[in-house]
Design a protein that fits this description.
Layout: H1 10-17, H2 23-34, H3 37-56, H4 60-69, H5 77-87, E1 108-115, E2 121-123, E3 135-142, E4 146-153, E5 159-163, E6 171-173, E7 179-185, E8 191-200, H6 207-214, H7 219-222, E9 228-236
Helix pairs in contact: 1-3, 3-5
């Protein structure tokens, strides 16, 4: 992995690779990339990792699409030829998160994990404080695929959208892939932080949730019908 000064977090580079940034954000990111050799190098690393993992573990969507085509000749040879083309537009995270004993029944369950010094994933607990610069990962469990977003409110009342990063609406969610393709590095704001997962089987915008969190109102009470909420809190301290 690259070392030294970088200006773009991995979460944004991953969204750039999957072409999930809005046009304005993509333009800003590309302008920063032009001035940052370290970020260019990291982007190349992520692209290479994506290609390698996808070749070993082609996505379920790609496999199903090829199965439905019923190729007349060549069979699975076509998969080997087509996977590299998809690799440039998909970022797949290799290490699995620990499984949860809980299942979602018509709602949503959010689990946070931090990366320990040995590289393992450890579930976040309200009783164990986290230090700034800790890497957070997210798992969302729901009974069916739909749309999901992850928001945060820190001790100073600042509200952030973690997934989709700085987004305005929920994004599609595959219930068979509960680990979200996002990594958050905790900033230096100390104190309690509350993280919320929002889920629905239908698309929804995030304006109401942002406003409720800014006013410190319970999201479950503010949520529109059909939008389910789960909540995890932790404390940041040095």
């Amino acid at each position: 992995m690259t070392t030294g000064t970088r200006r773009i977090p991995d979460a944004l580079l991953e969204r750039y690779l999957t072409d999930s940034l809005q046009a304005e954000a993509r333009t800003r990111l590309e302008a920063t990339l032009e001035r940052s050799p370290k970020d260019q190098q990291r982007l190349a690393e992520l692209r290479a990792d994506s290609a390698a993992v996808l070749l070993q573990h082609p996505s379920r969507t790609i496999v199903e699409r090829l199965q439905k085509k019923r190729w007349r000749s060549g069979g699975w040879m076509w998969l080997a030829l087509l996977v590299p083309a998809f690799a440039a537009t998909a970022v797949w995270l290799v290490r699995p998160l620990p499984s949860s004993p809980y299942t979602a029944k018509g709602s949503v369950i959010l689990t946070l994990f931090y990366v320990a010094s040995d590289g393992s994933f450890v579930p976040v607990s309200p009783d164990v404080p986290l230090a700034p610069e800790t890497s957070l990962h997210f798992k969302v469990r729901a009974a069916a695929s739909g749309f999901v977003a992850v928001l945060s409110r820190n001790a100073q009342g600042v509200v952030s959208v973690y997934h989709p990063y700085d987004g305005k609406e929920a994004v599609p969610f595959d219930a068979l892939q509960p680990r979200l393709p996002v990594e958050i590095i905790l900033d230096g704001t100390l104190g309690r932080e509350d993280v919320y997962a929002l889920y629905s089987t239908q698309p929804f915008e995030l304006g109401w949730a942002m406003e409720a969190l800014k006013r410190d109102l319970p999201l479950k009470d503010a949520a529109p019908k059909g939008v389910y909420v789960d909540h995890v809190s932790f404390t940041k301290q040095k």
